[in-house]
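To the wet lab folks,

You asked to see what we're planning to order before we commit. Fair enough. Below is the target structure as tokens, and below that is the sequence we designed to fit it. If anything looks off to you, flag it before the synthesis order goes out.
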């Protein structure tokens, strides 16, 4: 397998200093010699439309000038991180697109067969409001490539990667692709991987006081799963937790001091099991580290390098 990512798409919400997407995506593109497509979606605010309704500012010429101004601002921001020679020469392509951020990112990622999509998920400020929840969720549900949701620039070097597992076939794919993507992103041969199985039960059901038999059975099932699959021959430590999936994923990531959490999706036609509603929102919002979302195998458009 070629140790490089050839094409990636970065969704940029703003030029705020706390947005880690553009600096990290530029660094990653330079590291792999990849083509970076930087996407910024813009929509004139309702106040702007109301204030200038019927005035020339909204005619086609002014709209084109508005788009060009946004494009220029985007290219200027990219130059700060990628350098003057990178903009427009095929290494970095800037795309200012009117409309929904998730639709713009998804469309560009599909057009260029992206092998990785990078979006932001900071807790506060306009970046967080722009991407966390609506945009990140929509990008993830429609993605045909792994999506790296950044809360902060990855630590150097990244050492611990937590893989969420539910013993399904998509989990097998997520383990394989998650391990390979983490290796490509971080280039650390000493990466540690842990597979986490969360046992969820109906809240109306009271577990026995002695939960050890349940933990033992779950641990045995998880070990059999890994023995059969053994992604890339990589040794994996294991963990079993009981409770709400999103809460337990977040707790395990914090207690183990994971620097990346990997979750998989369960197909294009419906919402992924691990990412249903509050689970996705909670993991993306509250995980103490960055998150890598792996789409199910049939959804992949831009395959990982092979």
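Sequence we intend to order:
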């Amino acid at each position: 397998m070629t140790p490089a990512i050839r094409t990636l798409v970065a969704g940029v919400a703003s030029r705020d200093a706390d947005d880690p997407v553009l600096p990290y995506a530029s660094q990653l593109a330079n590291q792999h010699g990849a083509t970076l497509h930087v996407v910024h979606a813009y929509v004139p605010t309702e106040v702007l439309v109301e204030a200038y309704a019927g005035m020339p500012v909204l005619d086609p010429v002014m709209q084109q000038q508005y788009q060009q101004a946004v494009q220029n601002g985007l290219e200027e921001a990219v130059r700060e991180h990628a350098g003057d020679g990178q903009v427009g020469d095929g290494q970095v392509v800037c795309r200012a697109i009117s409309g929904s951020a998730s639709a713009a990112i998804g469309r560009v990622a599909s057009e260029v067969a992206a092998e990785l999509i990078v979006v932001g998920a900071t807790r506060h400020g306009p970046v967080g409001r722009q991407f966390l929840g609506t945009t990140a969720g929509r990008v993830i549900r429609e993605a045909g490539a792994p999506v790296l949701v950044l809360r902060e620039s990855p630590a150097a070097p990244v050492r611990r990667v937590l893989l969420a597992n539910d013993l399904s076939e998509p989990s097998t794919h997520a383990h394989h692709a998650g391990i390979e993507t983490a290796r490509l992103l971080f280039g650390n041969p000493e990466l540690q991987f842990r597979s986490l199985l969360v046992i969820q039960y109906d809240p109306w059901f009271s577990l026995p006081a002695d939960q050890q038999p349940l933990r033992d059975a779950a641990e045995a099932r998880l070990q059999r799963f890994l023995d059969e699959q053994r992604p890339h021959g990589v040794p994996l430590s294991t963990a079993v937790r009981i409770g709400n999936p999103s809460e337990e994923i977040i707790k395990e990531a914090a207690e183990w001091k994971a620097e990346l959490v990997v979750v998989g999706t369960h197909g294009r036609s419906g919402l992924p099991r691990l990412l249903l509603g509050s689970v996705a929102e909670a993991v993306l919002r509250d995980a103490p580290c960055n998150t890598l979302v792996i789409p199910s195998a049939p959804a992949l458009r831009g395959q990982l390098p092979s």
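Structural context that might help your review: Confidence is low (pLDDT under 50) at residues 123-132, 268-277. Residues 7-150 form a domain with the Rossmann fold fold (CATH 3.40.50.620).

Thanks,
Computational group
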